[in-house]
Design brief:
This protein is α+β, with helices and mostly antiparallel strands. It is 23% helix and 26% strand.
Length: 151
């Protein structure tokens, strides 16, 4: 005990406590996922882990704040979240070159009809697949799709 008293006289204990507290705060911030960085060549898919609104009743995407995957994706940058509430899945950003065609496959919505190969696109600006909330609403429950879109 006398050794600790001698150390405190030299000012060693107090900086060590501050350093330990700083390390504990950094670890807590990392574990709680309050701050998340998404590189510019990736997007973040947000999954809400818990909420008072409960789980989604039908479908795959939580459109009304329920627990599950959120319809919006995160672009590159630093993002702030409520602690312990979200999980962020990073995915590479897909770009479609000029003159190329890509297909979008959806896991949510009404199944295609028996004779249907591609989903209909009855909106005016033909860009509803870029907005998950709007895509899900353009038919009564959205259509699962295999949809080509030119660049």
């Amino acid at each position: 005990m006398e050794f600790l008293n001698n150390l405190s006289g030299f000012g060693v204990i107090q900086p060590a406590l501050w350093a330990a507290a700083a390390i504990a705060i950094v670890i807590l911030l990392r574990v709680s996922n309050i701050f998340r960085y998404i590189p510019n060549n990736q997007v973040g898919i947000v999954e809400k882990l818990w909420t008072t609104k409960g789980s989604i009743e039908g479908g795959f995407i939580a459109l009304h704040g329920e627990t599950g995957y959120e319809p919006e994706v995160l672009r590159g940058g630093l993002h702030l979240f409520f602690p312990f509430m979200y999980r962020i899945h990073k995915s590479d950003l897909v770009t479609v070159g000029q003159g190329k065609i890509a297909y979008v496959f959806a896991r949510d919505g009404a199944p295609l009809g028996a004779s249907q190969v591609l989903a209909a696109n009855d909106t005016e600006d033909k860009s509803d697949f870029q907005d998950a909330r709007r895509f899900r609403k353009w038919t009564s429950s959205g259509e699962r799709l295999s949809k080509p879109f030119p660049n």
